[in-house]
Amino acid sequence: MTSLKVVGLGGGIGASRLWKALLARGGEIDLTLAVNTGEDLWIHGLRVCPDLDTVLYALSGRQDSERGWGVRDETWRCMETLGEIEGRQWFNLGDRDLAVHLYRTGRLRAGHTLSEITSDLARRLGLGCRILPATDAEITTRVVTSGGRDLHYQEFLVREQATADVTDTYIRGPALAAPAAGLLAHIASADLIIIGPSNPVASLGPILHLTGVREALKTARHRTVVVTPIVASVPITDPGENTRARSRARLLAAAGFAADPAGVAAFYTDVASTFLLDRADLPQLPAVEKQGLRAVPTDTLLHQGADPAPLITALLARR
Predict the structure, then answer these.
(1) Is residue 169 part of a domain?
(2) Count of CB atoms within 10 A of residue 33's CB?
(3) How do beta strands 166-172 and 150-152 pair?
(4) Hey, which of 104, 220, 287, 304 has its CA 20 to 30 A from 278?
(5) Which DSSP string corresponds to 212-277?
(6) Domain, as residue range, for 192
(7) Alpha-carbon distance 79 to 107, whole Å?
(8) How far is CA 79 from each of CA 75, 84, 93, 96, 105, rounded to the nearest angstrom?
(9) Is 1 inside a domain boundary?
(10) Could you tell me where the beta strands, DSSP code E, fall in the chain?
(11) Is the residue at 282 inside a domain?
């Protein structure tokens, strides 16, 4: 049987849960993931790739499922020592996590590309899919607050806890940054393209910014499905999820979109044809379809212990 060629776009906690469920289908799916690098940062002299690492750890079974990020059974001796020397750290890196950043940074300094390094990490971690950084160029999502501060997205999300009002976001980096080698070809040949349940502005915006990606998705629009990152009718109780939801809402508002399923659909109206809406938000189906996408209700939440089967079935029915 020929495997279904699937390309997944996005990164972070929500998308990694979906990619893990797809990967569990084994040889039925030939999976290629293009992961956001707009949140990458240099800290303590190391290149840290939050979305890439979240995907690598989730798919390899190493992720701390309680926090949704980082490595399980982590230790923090390096951060404790840095705290003694410099004071409190706003961006914490566990000891096992640091090993990955040391490896990545050493190879970058030796002249290897982020794509090469990520491919090798995926192989060493035993992953059965392709993982591409969206680009080998260094691009960064910047957030401008109402107080006039210009922050790296991670500063806004982690240090500031997404509490400031946002007036603008922009991508810092090469104006014509190229996507990772092979990404456009994978999009062109895919049977199904999935825009994951990630922050539209912070996680997908940098991918759509890359030369040729938006145009490629417009051509493949009839094969592209959005999984909603917002379930408006289900209350959020986890503090981390609350911070991420606040960030998503503030960034969407700054870009001129509502922080609801219809607003997300409007964000993707030119690059996707189908929108998977959570059943809890069924009353919003007409508003989503007014944005020009076909809305399909299903169970989209993939929190710990949730059955991914309804969502995967709905996705594979879109091919």
Answers:
(1) yes
(2) 30
(3) unpaired
(4) 220
(5) THHHHHHHTGGGEEEEPS--TTS----HHHHHHHHHHHHHHHHTT--SSHHHHHHHTTTT-SEEEE
(6) 7-316
(7) 23
(8) 9, 9, 7, 12, 18
(9) no
(10) 4-9, 29-35, 41-43, 46-48, 130-133, 140-145, 150-152, 166-172, 192-195, 224-227, 274-278, 294-298
(11) yes
Residue 75 is inside which H or E element, if any?
Answer: none
> Number of folded domains in the chain?
1
Give the whole-angstrom CA distance, residue 67 versus residue 16: 13
Here the CATH number for the domain that contains residue 202 is 3.40.50.10680
pLDDT tens string, the chain, 319 residues long: the values are 688 999 999 988 999 999 999 999 888 999 999 999 999 999 999 999 999 999 999 999 988 877 777 788 899 999 999 999 998 889 999 999 999 999 999 999 999 999 999 999 999 999 989 999 999 999 999 999 999 999 999 999 999 999 999 999 999 999 889 999 999 999 999 999 999 999 999 999 999 999 999 999 999 999 999 999 999 988 888 888 899 999 999 999 999 999 999 999 999 999 999 999 999 999 999 999 999 999 999 999 987 777 899 999 999 986 6
Size of the chain, expressed as the number of residues it contains? 319
The residues near 278 (Cβ < 8 Å, ≥ 6 apart) are: 228, 231, 233, 234, 261, 297, 298, 299, 300, 301
- Measure the CA–CA gap between 165 and 125, rounded to whole angstroms: 39
